């Protein structure tokens, strides 16, 4: 997981476009826009992160940094 890749998606894509890219990656298709990542798994992680952050920003009226912090805390808890 690379934070700059997630940030780029948050800044350049809509939730709808990200959900479509998620579906394309799951179906082993090529998304309509570039997603950074070493493989499809990392690309999907970046898409999931961007969707989560955009939803959190909207639901909690939060800025990007706050939403990113919440997301990374959830990731740390899930892998520890």
Break the fold down into its secondary structure elements and pairings.
Layout: H1 3-12, H2 15-26, H3 40-60, H4 64-79
Helix pairs in contact: 1-3, 2-3, 3-4
3D structure, described in words:
- InterPro entries: DUF6952.
- It holds the Pfam family DUF6952.
- It is a single chain.
- By secondary structure, the protein is mainly alpha-helical.
- It has one domain.
- The chain has four helices and no strands.
Category by helix and strand content: mainly alpha
What would you call the quaternary organization?
single chain
SSE order, one letter for each helix or strand: HHHH
Quick one: overall form?
Answer: globular
List keywords for this structure.
DUF6952
Q: Quick gist of this model?
A:
With 80 residues, this protein is an all-alpha fold. It has helices spanning 3-12, 15-26, 40-60, 64-79.
